[in-house]
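Batch manifest, entry 17 of 40.
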Amino acid sequence: MKRSIWPCLLAAGCSSGAATGGKAGPATAAGSVLVAAPTVPHGTFDVAAGELADPGIYFRLKHRARLARQGAASLKRGGPRIDGADMPHAGSTDGAGEASKLDTRPIVPVLGVSPDAVRIVVEEDHARIALWIERRDTAETTVAAVQIADASGHAPAIAGLWLGAGVSVDVASPAGAAGFREVTLRSPWLTAKGYVPAAALGNVWLAGEREGYEPSTSGDDGKPPVTTGSTVSATLVRAAPGVDAAVVAEVKKVAPARVVKTTGAWTEIEIHVPRVRVRGFVPTSAIGPGDHGEVGALGFVNGFGMTDTETIAVPAGACLYDAVKGEVAGVNLAPAVRFVFGGERAPGWWPVIVLSPWGRVVTYVHDTAAAKDPKGAVLESCAASAKS
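Output type: structure tokens
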């Protein structure tokens, strides 16, 4: 009997399994290959927080992470939490300071890392700011392209499922045998489960050379599936034509599909959804004309208003500091009237509020005129034109 080598389906039982990217090992019997550990690309962190308003900055910020939980966040590494949960007056009876799991796992640019923390970039409230979060609040994900294999590390030579870097997956614990770990794909389009080399998993990955970043669509990888002129309806993708063939993945809803070849009742296809590629066979009746794509948007909703509070007009490009005479932690992106509230008061410095997914962030703008009234302030600029 031929051994099945395909990934397990979440909703259709286990047929043993496959996936994309990554270096395959030598071919084995029955048309399968041994999936080798991929080469993980690395890069340097060479962007400063004061450059966050520069044109094309997201193409320079090449590192990415996915948020799994919303826990502690600070402007300074090891500094006070934005939500104030570490202050002496903070109580613990109302859940303050507890991390909350996120239904989606949004992608965020990464400005730096330490063994236990990650410095991410958040764009909200007409500003980009750099925040330190705990590494454990980021999701484990693929950090290099890799093909999904079965528990023995084997995958099909042609049909199968491949994952690019940054795919949203659930990773089983403990690790599997022979240096592999079991992963379950988190996708609105496909359902699949299988094994990848442990070396292909991590918390921070290097984005592709031409990969930018769009904050409004960070929850669905910033782009729709690749359109092809054909679609496939919800169905099982199999390793070979026939209802007895092993299942590669399950299509959950209508998706774009590239037709490779049709032979009677079965059609060989490829599906490209964000960071995932599938190749296999589906019933010809599941193929339809036209393109189908979706672009979702992810946004954290924040509301904040105060009356009888001083305000200051903050121009585009203004530097946002983490403290009086501190370091630049972000940049104002567009003209905004901000509340002067909280924080330390000192000549030439105004504490201003910027909203973030973690709540109100007290940042500081540097008033080079040292005005006594915010209406007369002349604020330091981090805009590229001001630095040149």
